[in-house]
């Protein structure tokens, strides 16, 4: 069991950073305009909030944890914001960042546009097996964000290549379980924050700061009773393969499709028992898409592996090089899930070779 004081300052800083970034994202989501959307090389939508969130997290971590060796592995860089025509966007981001930080009475600063660009660009670290590296997805689930649906600010810390803490801020996730389709959504308290530290379990609280409580993954042992999470976007995961696996397991419930690492949080508290992610061929998983979710589930008693049952390795830089996909469930279900996955993959390979 890890010492309860180990990484405590870092976890407190991460909670503060992710909570403030979530506040900025909520402000933007309420007033989304088509002009907020920029284009990236992979054509996925990225917003003013994406850049603003990254700037806020970077700045808060640096202010809370002064260090000469600050390292942040993050999704965005400020290249596009330095181009001609981006001045209005940069101005808006700078205003948002200053307004967000001013909501915290401990910060009395006024940042210039250059300060904000530098904060965004501090996320260019490559990570790796040595030292400490923060890992950030400033808005995980940008399509969900643009739809007004689920997204997460996902922040983790690597120490010598291992994930030692993680925070998931999920502004649109109800505090109550989403597993019950008949629940009265009008009664929901909305906005969850999940936090986990190695050896200390996983906590959940309202984003606005309610008392944290320990959570645990589902204890279901019979796959027929298990409900399953997968990506909302078919482009993000092979739904046909997931369907084949659930048939082999005898899963009765239809899949729950939600965006972002909010799935990891929902699974960590037992809303569902299985999460499958099978990216299309050629896609390389990034460490920021899984680091925070990985420890939130692991510390809640769950297991996260690749499709061959190997542990995820976050020590190799910005990418997770893994076998085929990612499986998340509880310890009792994992052997059954692995068998079903291997059978489904063999069948898929065989049918492809016959074409």
UniProtKB/TrEMBL annotation:
Catalyzed reaction equations: adenosine 3',5'-bisphosphate + H2O = AMP + phosphate; adenosine 2',5'-bisphosphate + H2O = AMP + phosphate; 3'-phosphoadenylyl sulfate + H2O = adenosine 5'-phosphosulfate + phosphate
Binding locations of Mg(2+): 75, 137, 139-140, 289
Keyword Metal-binding appears in the UniProt entry: yes
Residues annotated as signal peptide: none
Highest taxon, organism lineage: Eukaryota
Cofactor(s) listed in the protein's UniProt record: Mg(2+)
Stored Pfam families: Inositol_P
GO terms classed as biological process: inositol phosphate metabolic process; phosphatidylinositol phosphate biosynthetic process; sulfate assimilation
Record keywords, A-Z: Hydrolase, Magnesium, Metal-binding
Functional description taken from the UniProt entry: Converts adenosine 3'-phosphate 5'-phosphosulfate (PAPS) to adenosine 5'-phosphosulfate (APS) and 3'(2')-phosphoadenosine 5'-phosphate (PAP) to AMP.
Family under the similarity heading: Belongs to the inositol monophosphatase superfamily.
Name of the protein in question: 3'(2'),5'-bisphosphate nucleotidase
Organism the protein comes from: Dioscorea zingiberensis
Organism lineage: Eukaryota, Viridiplantae, Streptophyta, Embryophyta, Tracheophyta
């Amino acid at each position: 069991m890890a010492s309860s004081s180990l990484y405590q300052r870092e976890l407190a800083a991460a909670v503060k950073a992710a909570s403030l970034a979530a506040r900025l994202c909520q402000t933007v989501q309420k007033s989304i305009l088509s002009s907020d959307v920029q284009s990236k090389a992979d054509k996925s939508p990225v917003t003013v909030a994406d850049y603003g969130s990254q700037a806020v997290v970077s700045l808060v971590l640096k202010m809370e944890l002064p260090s000469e060796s600050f390292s942040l592995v993050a999704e965005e860089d400020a290249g596009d914001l330095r181009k001609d025509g981006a001045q209005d966007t940069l101005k808006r981001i700078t205003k948002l960042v200053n307004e967000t930080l001013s909501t915290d009475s401990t910060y009395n600063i006024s940042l210039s546009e250059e300060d904000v660009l530098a904060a965004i660009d501090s996320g260019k670290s490559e990570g790796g097996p040595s030292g400490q590296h923060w890992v950030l997805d400033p808005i995980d689930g940008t399509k969900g964000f643009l739809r007004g649906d689920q997204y997460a600010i996902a922040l983790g810390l690597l120490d010598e290549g291992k994930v030692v803490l993680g925070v998931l801020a999920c502004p649109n996730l109800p505090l109550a379980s989403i597993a019950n389709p008949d629940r009265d959504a009008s009664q929901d308290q909305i906005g969850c924050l999940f936090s986990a530290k190695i050896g200390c379990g996983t906590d959940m609280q309202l984003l606005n700061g309610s008392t944290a409580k320990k959570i645990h993954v589902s204890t279901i042992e019979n796959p027929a009773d298990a409900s399953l999470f997968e990506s909302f976007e078919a482009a993000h995961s092979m739904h046909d393969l997931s369907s084949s696996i659930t048939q082999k397991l005898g899963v009765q419930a239809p899949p729950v499709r939600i965006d972002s690492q909010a799935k990891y949080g929902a699974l960590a508290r037992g809303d569902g028992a299985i999460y499958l992610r099978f990216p299309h061929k050629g896609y390389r998983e990034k460490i920021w898409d899984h680091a925070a979710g990985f420890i939130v589930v692991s510390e809640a008693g769950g297991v996260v592996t690749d499709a061959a049952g190997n542990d995820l390795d976050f020590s190799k830089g910005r990418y997770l090089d893994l076998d085929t996909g990612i499986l998340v469930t509880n310890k009792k279900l994992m052997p059954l899930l692995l068998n079903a996955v291997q059978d489904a993959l063999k069948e898929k390979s065989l049918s492809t070779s016959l074409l």
